[in-house]
Amino acid sequence: MENKLLYVAFLREDSDAVGFVKKVYAQCRAMNQLGRRAYLLISQKDRAVCYDTWTGREVVREHHYSPKAIFVETPAWKRSTASYFRMTEFLQFAATLAESLDVQEIYIRRVKPVLPQLSLWLQRCRRQERKMYYEIPDYPVEAPFKTDWPAYGSYVLDQAAFRFGVYPLVKKIVAVSITPVADPKVIAIKNGIDLAATPVVERPAFHHPDEAFVLAGVANLASWHAYDRIIKGLNKCRAPIRPEFHIIGDGPVSDELRQLAVAEGVEDRVIFHGTLTGSELDQMMNGVDVGIGILGNHRRNFFGDSSLKNREYCARGIPFLLASEDSDFPVNLPFVFRTPADESPVDIDRLFFKYMQHRHRNTPANIRSYAAEHLSWEQKLRGVFREVPIEEGKAHEGSA
Q: In the chain, which ranges are continuous DSSP H helix?
């Protein structure tokens, strides 16, 4: 019997959070390689869509949201209200799909908040003997400050709803975690990368000193990316190079970073590209010397890293800079550069020295080979799906 799996992701496929959406598709492709036929249920502004990822991205069924559930940008209260109704309809559609497709397994990316409808559906799935996996993409969940009573109260209620309405019902909790987890029901994994969807860069094997030293960060810009540390470091560079910092993405701190570049007098060396995808992103990355990872996890009391961007730089064959420890990248790797996890400006001179020191070893092919050996989603998810019902690796040739 064909083993079918429904991946439930309450994410907007048409949002700017392209990294999260790419991850979900990559996981589905890996699940196909691990012996499943993975169907993906994902949201859009006005509908929920179920794709058969085994055959590429064939639409199996759609549910058009009612007017009260359609995504709206503003005002905030209306957006929150619409989100509640949209999630309710999304979960109802998920329950219908699970039965009509007769799936044996259900993989749910964390739903926030945990609604009663989710718990009721999980109870029904358990009675129907479907195996359920629940992924928490940033485990353990960060608690807001207690002084922020609305946020902290919502956090406590949601944690309680998870503990009593989700945890006892699912087969495994899949925790994307930077630290070991002792709970036997929790499988701790790190983020992976879809190698087939990530092309290797086409760039020289080493940097010519007469050219610009190109740094690039790809992110949905937030304070913890700490790209301000790069901007402040540009002015302190004394090496005979012309450093440039290319910011790819958008987010809440975009304007702050633009203003900082002007204040530091480096606005001509900080280039904002906005969100790039597909061939535009590939072309941009071809000219990058060093990718910039998250440099401010300490700002949210995180002292480890499992960022998707680190893995994408590696898969593309680009050296990159980290501040927090990422156990997928041991300290002896020549293509991983490090800066302290603090508020100091990044030492661009030292970064360039390290870059030049290892330039002959850090070829795109060498860096990519490390990603192929250690970072694929198939490797990350193999421990989650220990029982492989059909011959592994025989997914349909048309898989996306």
A: 18-33, 76-100, 116-127, 149-165, 228-234, 254-263, 278-285, 308-316, 348-357, 364-374, 377-382
Measured distance CA(376)–CA(183) in Å, rounded: 25
**Alpha carbon distances (Å) from 331 to 321, 323, 336, 370, 375:** 12, 12, 8, 14, 16
Looking at residue 40, its amino acid is: L
Residue 243 DSSP class: E
- Looking at domain 4-192+377-382, its CATH architecture is 3-Layer(aba) Sandwich (3.40)
pLDDT in tens, 102-146: 999 999 999 999 999 999 999 999 999 999 999 999 888 877 877
Q: Which residues contact 168 (CB under 8 A, 6 or more apart)?
A: none
Which residues have C-beta within 8 Å of that of residue 73, sequence separation ≥ 6?
79
Is the pTM of the predicted complex or chain greater than 0.90?
A: no
Domain with CATH 3.40.50.2000 in the chain: 4-192+377-382, 196-374
